[in-house]
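Hi P.,

Sorry for the delay on this. The queue was packed all week, but I finally got your sequence through. Input first:
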Amino acid sequence: MAHARRMIWLHLALVAGVSTAGSTHAATFWVGNGTGCTHATIQAAIDAAAANGASADDVNVRAGTYVNQSLVITGQNLTISGGWNACGTGAQRTGRSIVSAGAAAGSYGPNRVLRVENPAGNWITVNLTGLEISDGRDTALDGGGGGIRAIGRLLLRLQDSRVEHNTSANVGGGIYLRGESQNSPAALEMLDRTSIVDNQAQSFGGGIRAEFANVNIRSDNTDIVANVAYAGGGIAARRSTVIIGAVGEPLPATGNGAAIVINHATRGGGVYVDDQTLFEARELRLYGNTAASMGGGLYATGGAQVQFARDYPNAFALRCTGANCSRIEANQAGDGCPGTSGDGGGVYLDGASGYFNQVEFVGNCAFGSPAIMAWGTRVYLEGALFARNRLTWRGPTNNTGRQVVTLGNRGGDPPRTADIAFTTFADNVEVRSDNTTEPASPISMLYSSGDWTTRMRGTIATGSIPTISGGVDALGPCNRTNVFTSWFANAAGGDYRPNPAGGLVDACAREDVTFEYSDPLLVPRCQDHTRPNAGGTCDLGAYELPGNIPDDRIFASGFE
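Then the structure:
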């Protein structure tokens, strides 16, 4: 697909465009007290490296707490690494160094912690390893970046580091990253064991604000947690590319994916993207984020494009294991769960397109549209699970958003397209005013009277799927409504894979469906099971039963 190919070219361009090479006279400077230490302060070592010329120097910082910091790096290739147990020959990295803008760790300082600038000339690379960047404050309304401000032709790379407890009166509480233009973007890489935690911004990007930038986040041992902003509690990106996936060294045999969790904003509790931004998540858990208004997990607008998937279109193999590898879960929009306001508990698309493949929407809630609210240009669902999402009962005079997935219509909007393949709607509910529940309508697009061009195939629901006229099969073959819960492995335990003895296995002919991806657990589609076919070789719904599972095998629970 075009959006996937774009990601590959952007990655290659970044690798080709950012030079880390220095002169043959690179030097190492040691910060701390004791034998072998060359400088007492981090800034003094940075300045010594700058005086050493264009070489890619190293600044090694002894473990400890460094307060009253307001560091500046200008036009240099540099690696700053913390947590060293000594200075000089024989020293080893055994932990992290705390670099605080405050007079004491935990108290805000008067300035940001680190400013990196490269306004012209060759690209530079700044590596930060084994550091805790904390307690920075940006008070300038025209500024940005409470912890780190990185501007210009540069690559900022973080590994085994933490950006924590920073604040900005404007944008980028933790990190503010800005390039020169879309054709000359700055770049950020978040590598393993890196966290962006408990930062705040008054406007955009509590954790990270990116403008004209490429942000690459490794899908293993990285997280963005408990950040707050007006828009984009975790990440806010404008005219940028955000890729979550195989970044840095090859991924381990077992990984845990990336996590954007328990962030808060008015719009886009976890993520806010706008102005032609591409947000592509390969193995991400978007969990427990809240928005006071719209888009508890993610809000996209202004021609942005959002994609969730696990399969890669190239040689990069992802290795996340378990049930949380690609999951939009327990996010909330509005004033309660569910409450009396708020739409798009999981995702809100406004003039943006969304591709949600191999992803599970579970336990999200909102007043309306707890999984997806879309006023967009295109929605593509394949291998998606929508289960146990909740919305609030609405009176008969207002049906807007009274579905798990709502595709809305506005006067003057251009024609829109929705594709839904191998998707499961199960156990989603409306919470009525007396706190009783009834099954929620899965999706609204079939009410739209020509505003949406739709196609549905291989899709199932435990309730009914509304249509304008005719049966659900009129929208495409191999769809089933009012599916029995006994056809799932263990619906009560949250396991919606096919029960080998149920009616979902081998129920659709291969020639009747098209698809691009394996199922959410990376099981290839259309495996011919040993049981007699009930219509073909393809299983219905989000999951495919492996062909070697015995007929009498019922999954106890989970995803073992």
